[in-house]
Amino acid sequence: MGLVLLAVLDGSSEDLYGYEIAKRLAIANDGTSIFKEGTIYPVLRALSAADLLTSRIVPSYSGPPRRYYRITDQGRAVLAEWKTIWQGTRSFVDRFIEIGNSP
Fold it and tell me: Residue 40 CA to chain centroid, in angstroms?
C-alpha cells in the first residue's frame, strides 16, 4: 500500500489528508475502494516516520483537525525504486499467469 500512497501524493500538486487520499483511490478504482480507510492512516504515519512524507495539522471547521501529507524528495527517490521493483515483480508474475506461457 505504501507504493500506492506515495504515487498518489507524488501525483498531487497539493497536500492531501487521509480522506482525500482514500477518495482518490476509490475514484481510480471506478468508485470502489480496495483499501479500508482505516488501514491508510497507519501506513501514512509509517511513511512519515521514515521521512518519505511530511505532514502538517490544520484546524477544521467541520470536525477534528486534519493532518495533510506531502511527499518528500526522499519519498520520490523511494517511490522510483519501488516502482522498478513492482514492475519487475509484475512482469515475472505475468509470465506465469498469461495463457500459453508456462515456465
Answer: 8
Looking at the structure of the chain, the number of domains it has is 1
The DSSP result for 35-100, as a single string, is S-HHHHHHHHHHHHHTTSEEEEEE--TTSS-EEEEEE-HHHHHHHHHHHHHHHHHHHHHHHHHSTT
C-alpha 2: how far from chain center: 5
Q: How many residues belong to the chain?
A: 103
**47 Cβ contact partners less than 8 Å away, ≥ 6 residues apart:** 2, 5, 6, 53, 69, 75
Name residue, grid cell 500500500: 1
- Condensed to tens digits (0 to 9), the pLDDT of residues 29-69 reads 888 888 887 899 999 999 999 999 999 999 988 889 999 99
* Residue at 64 is within a domain: yes
Residue 68: partners with Cβ closer than 8 Å, 6 or more residues away: 15, 16, 17, 55, 56, 57, 58
CATH number, domain with residue 42: 1.10.10.10
